[in-house]
Amino acid sequence: MSYLAKLPLFSDLDPEQLQALEKHTLLRSFPKNSVIITEGDISDSLYIIVSGHVRVFCSDEEGHEITLNDLKAGDHFGELALFDDQQRSASVITTEACRLLILNKNSLLDAFRACPDLAYQMFVHLAERVRALTNNVKSLALMDVYGRVANTLLELSETRDGQRVTRIPLTQQDIANRVGASREMVSRIMKDLVIGGYITVEKKKIVINDNLPARY
User: Are 96 and 32 in contact (CB under 8 A)?
Assistant: First the structure.
């Protein structure tokens, strides 16, 4: 079965259109901790995650990072460069081994002309990203560090076998990069949540045992 056929973004293409588009894709495998895109690069490809996870982040000259998003199989990234031909606005690194479909700009624009609904779906996905980033900015501006940590734990968790657990492994530095705080401050908050019995930190996940306090 076509990889593209499994992705919601391309669900409106008929089999012939999918086949024609897939001829222009390149399937590549990347090990964990591979940098796929570097902030400031010039490129115009769309990347579609077939398997694995990636982290989208920005950094400064001193090496400080802030995480913008975590993406999984079925998600895509790099779409902004398809429309404005500008430098990449963020970096992307694999957080586990990944397989990615790479699609160049000209092939995707041809698909837009053949199926206008595909362009609409792309804009819907972009709108979702903008809303998510808006919420992140709101969190950074209006919440204290504890509120941002608690919000991050809840956003990155799901219920499995009756437990609420984080979907991806998170170190204290990972959380700090997401909330724009020092690792030391995050460490203090996490320690207090553990002592209070609100969370349990395990090797590859954080278990949320109880409703997190409204205030620190």
Answer: yes
What is the CA 55 to chain-centroid distance, rounded? Answer: 5
- Identify how many contiguous H helices and E strands the chain contains and give both numbers: 7, 12
CA distances 98 to 8, 37, 83, 93, 114, Å, are 19, 14, 25, 10, 30
Tell me which CATH code domain 144-208 carries. Answer: 1.10.10.10
Structure tokens at 95: 């957080």
CA distance 153 to 155: 6
Considering the domain 4-140, what is its CATH architecture? Answer: Sandwich (2.60)
Q: Domain coordinates of the chain in residue numbers?
A: 4-140, 144-208
Summarised one tens digit per residue, pLDDT across range 143-194 is 899 999 999 999 999 999 999 999 988 999 999 999 999 999 999 999 999 9
Partners of 128 in the β-ladder: none
The total number of residues written for the chain in this structure: 216
Letter for the amino acid at 169? Answer: P
| Backbone φ and ψ of 55, nearest 5° | -120, 135
